[in-house]
Specification:
The complex is a heterodimer. Chain A is α/β, with parallel strands linked by helices. In chain A, about 35% of the residues lie in helices and about 20% in strands. Chain B has a single domain, classed as Ubiquitin-like (UB roll), CATH 3.10.20.30. In chain B, strand 3 and strand 4 form a beta hairpin. Chain B starts with a strand and ends in a 5-residue tail after the last strand. Classes of the chains: A alpha/beta, B mainly beta.
């Protein structure tokens, strides 16, 4: 292999040859292989990070190709799981990097096994619940977790360093009842690239031993707007995740989203582990445009999305008809509810 | 009045009197938002008591879930 492969990066003084050697021995876990995940993974693989693990529960679809840079039309036609398609492409990009794609639904029961021996975790999920699960595990195992998220032309990032910054749970003290998602308000790829540019920079700094500035940042690339807040004052000494008597609530079995396949009905029922009141009226405004056969009454909202019939109840529970695969049902739920 | 919001000078209606009004103006009242008013993080429980005045510097970051 050519010795000049990383020469431009080694010429950059804050990294240098010593930093490159650290990258070679580094292990990075990326949670999610959608837009953020594929972008971060490609940068880190090209940068020569020693080992990259990507976890994702979904498969490649046509609507992904506009921004999820590792995937091709062939991957859609083959209905390849994202983790597998990403692994294949990343190996072509850099055969020196050990790449592992894992097809799985990340939750409080498997996250601690996934974070074991990792040096940095990159956030590339599409929902708050999984982020808080990963945040719990990152704090517990003292691994930096680089938060990133985006919808439409707006994105945000925050490098969570256990012991040095507030954790995500300090900043988000409850699961939001309704969110905009890429499937409801859309997303353009430049904001994906901007968020991952910041996330990967933070990861490179952490891995090469450079100082990072722990600030919450947001950007709207369409409006040329940006904001930055020093969130240190929000560190909560009683935080259930990073406070003095932490319980890591998102790792507890009783707090996981419970999924049950309803036998013989080709239906999955999802019940959030944390109390989550869904305002059906607000959900209706967004879903009316995206779905068909829309019905709402005071108790529930029912609609058809792609080939699935969805029923949402006020307490956050949902029935996904048309699948008996739990991971697929969860993916649809989080796409629409966030 | 004019405030500096996320680095940009923006004109907001005169009837916006406090942080709570500002959030409602931008339809962010049901979202998770962190607000810094003149370099100090605004306490969520005091949004209605924190006045917004001409020339104030506001940083406002709302959380989104996509990725």
């Amino acid at each position: 292999m050519s010795t000049t492969r990383y020469s431009r990066q080694e010429l950059f003084p804050p990294i240098g040859k010593a930093g490159q050697e650290k990258l070679k021995n580094a292990r990075v876990l990326i949670i999610g292989a959608g837009a953020l995940g594929t972008s971060s993974a490609e940068m880190l693989v090209r940068a020569g990070v020693g080992r990259i693990t990507m976890v994702d529960r979904d498969y490649v679809e046509w609507s992904n190709l506009q921004r999820q840079q590792l995937y091709t039309e062939k991957d859609v036609q083959d209905k390849l799981p994202k983790a597998i398609a990403a692994e294949k492409r990343l190996r072509e990009v850099n055969s020196e990097v050990v790449i592992e794609g894992i097809v799985a639904d990340v939750n409080g029961m498997n996250i601690e096994e996934l974070v074991k021996n990792q040096h940095v975790i990159l956030d590339a999920t599409d929902n708050f619940e999984t982020r808080l699960v990963v945040n719990d595990a990152a704090v517990k195992h003292e691994i930096p977790f680089i938060f990133g998220a985006c919808v439409a032309s707006y994105g945000m990032t925050f490098p969570m360093i256990p012991g040095k910054t507030p954790c995500l749970h300090c900043l988000i003290n409850h699961l939001p009842s309704q969110n905009q998602t890429c499937d409801t308000v859309g997303v353009i790829s430049p904001i994906v690239q901007l968020v991952t540019a910041y996330q990967v920079t933070s990861a490179l700094k952490v891995l090469t031993g450079n100082e990072i500035v722990p600030r919450l940042q947001s950007f709207d690339i369409w409006k040329s707007e940006k904001a930055e807040i020093d969130v240190w004052p929000l560190k909560n000494k009683d935080c259930p995740t990073c406070g003095s008597s932490s319980t890591f609530p998102f790792l507890a079995y009783e707090n996981q989203t419970k999924a049950a396949v309803l036998c013989g009905r080709n239906t999955v029922q999802l019940r959030p582990g944390f109390e989550r009141t869904i305002t059906l009226d607000q959900l209706a405004i967004r879903l009316k445009e995206l779905t068909s056969e829309f019905i709402q009454n005071p108790y529930l909202l029912s609609c058809t999305y792609e080939e699935f019939r969805l029923v949402f109840f006020k307490d956050g529970r949902a029935l996904i008809h048309g699948t008996s695969e739990i991971a697929q049902a969860k993916a649809i739920y989080h796409r629409l509810i966030g | 009045m004019t405030i500096q919001l996320n680095g940009l000078h923006v004109e907001i209606p005169e009837n916006i009197r406090n942080v709570d009004d500002l959030l409602k103006h931008y339809q962010l009242e049901n979202r998770i938002v962190i607000i810094e008013l003149n370099n100090e993080i605004a306490d969520k429980s005091k949004y209605t008591e924190l006045p917004i005045a001409d020339g104030d510097k506001v940083e406002m970051i709302h959380f989104v879930g996509g990725g």
